[in-house]
Each structure stands twice: as structure tokens, then as C-alpha cells.
Amino acid sequence: MHNGITYREVRHYRTDHHLVRFYFLACVSSEYIESVLANFKQGPQPDAVIINSCIWDVIRYHEQSLEMYKTNLDHLFIRLTEVLSPECLVIWNMAMPVGFKAGELLKYPIPNVPWDIIEGNFYSATLADLHQFDVIDMHFRIELHFRVKDATHSNQLAHRKYTCVLMTHIAQAWGVQQEQQEDEAVGY
């Protein structure tokens, strides 16, 4: 694994009834995204698409990254609507919180990284909602104390919580009845 702008992470989950795909995006506008959309178009169509891109879009490319992110995001959401079937559950995950040390990743100095992420999250969530995509606010759900020393990544508890929030959302969206447990898990 590496943290360069060409980083890729793809996850697939398939049962007899569902195909779920997770793509980590380093940028909302790229040839890679177009290749992913081409795969969707070829089929089989996914039942759910879980998508997230913000941090690298906002801080890694150039000084006007936030404005470009907004433009590129609108294009991506239009393309998703064109390519995916209306039955596909599209979930936009908002970026988790970052700290000031995240600026160490920057090629261009941006003094307000945490606030730019908040602005990018707000814009992306609003736009996703306009396109009738589901939105999960991981920035709110993942607390600051889950961050590791680099102030950008989160620890295993955050990722466990992230997975639980995501799977609960999918289950609710698909009308899956969850069993109630007497002893609720604690520790988050």
C-alpha cells in the first residue's frame, strides 16, 4: 500500500442476491473513474455503490482544489445517474475528520485543511442529496479521538464503527429486519 494519488482500493461482496462494490477514490475526476463506470455499464449492474472522495481532492492537487472538486463532483454524480440503474443504492460517504497535521501531505500549503474538508463534505452531501443518493456523515460519526498520529487516518475502532454504520444503513435501505440483542455492545 502507498499514499500516492494513484492509490486504488476496490472491494467486492457478492451473494446469490447482491453485488456490492466499494471503490476508494483519490480524485472524483479521472480515467480510473471512467473505467469503473464502464465496468458498471457492461454489467452486472451493482445493487449498491459506496463512494467517497474528498480529502485528497481538496488538499493534494493544487491551490484551487476545493473549487475543482465541486465542479468534478457534479460531473461524477451526473455520470453515476447516467450509468447506474435506478434500483442501485448509491451511498455517498462524507470524509472523516482530519487534523492540522494533514497539511504535511500537501504539495501546496493550505492553512485551513480541516475546514476545507468540512466545506467539501457539506457541498458533496448537498449535491448527493440533490441527485437522490443516500448520504452517510462519517465526519460526524467518527470522533476525533479515533485519529492516529498523522491526524489523517483513523484507528481500528473507527473502522469497525464505520463498517457498522455502513452495514446498518444498507440493511435499513433494503428493508432487512435486524435481530434485537439484549446486551448492546459498548465501547464506541
Description:
Belongs to the PC-esterase family. 40% of the residues lie in helices and 13% in strands. It is of the alpha/beta class and 188 residues long. A five-stranded mixed beta sheet has the order 1-2-3-4-5, sandwiched between helices. A hairpin with a 4-residue loop joins β1 (9-14) and β2 (19-24). α1 (31-42) runs parallel beside α3 and α3 (65-83) runs parallel beside α4 (113-130). The longest helix is centred in the middle third of the chain and has 19 residues, at 65-83. The chain is globular, with a radius of gyration of 17 Å. The two termini are 28 Å apart. The model has no long low-confidence stretch (mean pLDDT 76).
Please tag this protein with its features:
5-stranded mixed sheet; Rossmann fold; alpha/beta; globular; 188 residues
What is the topology?
Blueprint: E1 9-14, E2 19-24, H1 31-42, E3 48-52, H2 55-59, H3 65-83, E4 89-93, H4 113-130, E5 134-136, H5 138-141, H6 156-173
Parallel strand pairs: 2-3, 3-4, 4-5
Antiparallel strand pairs: 1-2
Helix pairs in contact: 1-3, 3-4
